[in-house]
Design goal:
single chain, alpha/beta, 2 domains, Rossmann fold, Alpha-Beta Plaits, 13 strands, seven-stranded mixed beta sheet, 298 residues, 32% helix, four-stranded antiparallel beta sheet
Amino acid sequence: MSTAIKASHSPYYAKAKRFILNLSCRDRRGIVAGVSSAINLGAGNISESAQFGDTRSGLFFMRVAFDVPIDASFEELRALMRPVTEEFEMTWTLHDAARRSQLILMVSRFDHCLQDLLFRWKIGVLPVDIAAVVSNHEDARATVEGHGLPFHHWPVTPDTKEQAEKKLLSLVKEVGADLVVLARYMQVLSDALSRELFGRAINIHHSFLPAFKGAKPYHQAFERGVKLIGATAHYVTADLDEGPIIAQATEHATHADGPNDLVVIGRDIEARVLARAVALHVERRVFLNGSRTVVFDR
């Protein structure tokens, strides 16, 4: 039987550790009460809680952020959570919020999304560690190395694609990467690599999916006289540009906007949407729900 963690005299600890609990299971009565009781046994103070019961799939999703005394151990908290997770047959993770996610960024020649992520990382609004940047071109080397980050140039041709993907998987394991971000990396990942990285790789698509796939999407949009353009961030799957969507945004366009105007507007949207999707992922706010996602936004 698990032993409860003793609370300090104040319910708001002067020194505390924050944990994030993510869970999913079949929806039924008592889940929230059971989770809250387990956190209370750990002397936890819940600071944020969100839940959603999907009537279509019958699944229940929950994210809880809570603070515990500084001397509470990860193992103790897991032990206290185990009875309720077993009772409800939950799929669950417990994450120490102080641990920063390890990212690998991938880019080709258009580096606006890369530049935006590096800026957010540098000023501290994106609390991650960038382990490396990988590119099939040399264009971004000076920018990346100027930030003191490792840059890997792995050219991709039909003959070298398999080797480059093996190098990427090796790098993921070497640095313990939690997430691979395709920041306008203009290479299609193989089915095998997409499956290997499922749920751990995010791509930005230069349109409000599903529309204007393929080359020159903004020129296609111009020819169709669109009045709304956008961008979509999604998890990478073997089905090209059809992975579970994390974040989207749009901007209005008018008849006066030419293709180059749309490109400028579009690049700004792409950078913002990708950064938002990465932040939501590393804050453990995104749950996979089949071909869809559950996103507990800020």
